[in-house]
Amino acid sequence: MTDSTYDRWVFDLDGTLVDVEPEYVRSVFDRVGDRLGYAFSERQADGIWHGLGGARNEALRSWGVAPEQFWTAFHEVEDPAARADATFLYADAAVVGDIDAPTALVTHCQSYLTEAVLSELDIEDWFDTVVCCTESTGWKPDPKPVELALSALDADGNGVLVGDGPHDIGAAWNAGLDGAHVERHSPEQRGLCVVGDHRLSRVDELA
In the UniProt record, does the keyword Hydrolase occur (predicted)? Predict the structure, then answer.
């Protein structure tokens, strides 16, 4: 990737560079379901976790689950150590560590979890800045968290945001970057086609 034409790089985390073991997803949704009095199916859990089938909050509402209550319970049941232990790095994402250009991470994963995952995988030094989305920063496709990351990089030139969901491509375009979509799931699973400036099956294809 050091030979790429891009001067600035922004990456999503979950589903793009890392993922978690299926057993962990199941355990989280079982505990959230216990709190909410709702039994999530395997398909529902996978869909919400990986952002398959469209907007997460719209899916929750269609099942009769209030998004605010869901996300509160979701964040309360996750343990940083357990999350980090269940997380693995995609082999094709290792090239990110070789990028010789300003590099940022912008993730919906909360800071208390992100810090644990980056530390466990020993990839903190891959990124010059990390922005964890919150209500105050906004959530992708809102460009604000990406713009905060770019401001911290303090670098000019053309840039790209690499992510695994349509909200990542939207955030890239809204922030004036190219969008590279890494598809980790089949079109049948996702339920839609994500169009970006680059369509990848592996992160290292962008080199």
Answer: yes
Burial 26-58 (b: 16+ CB within 10 A, else e): eebbeebbeebebebeeebbbbbbbbbbeebbe
Could you state, in order of their start, the residue ranges of all structural domains in the chain? Answer: 8-20+87-206, 22-83
Fold entry, domain 8-20+87-206: Rossmann fold (3.40.50)
What is the C-alpha separation between 132 and 59, in angstroms, rounded?
Answer: 23
pLDDT in tens, 105-163: 999 999 999 999 999 999 999 999 999 999 999 999 999 999 999 999 989 999 999 99
Q: How far is CA 197 from the centre of its chain?
A: 18
Per residue in 27-69, pLDDT (tens digit) is 999 999 999 999 999 999 999 998 887 789 999 999 999 999 9
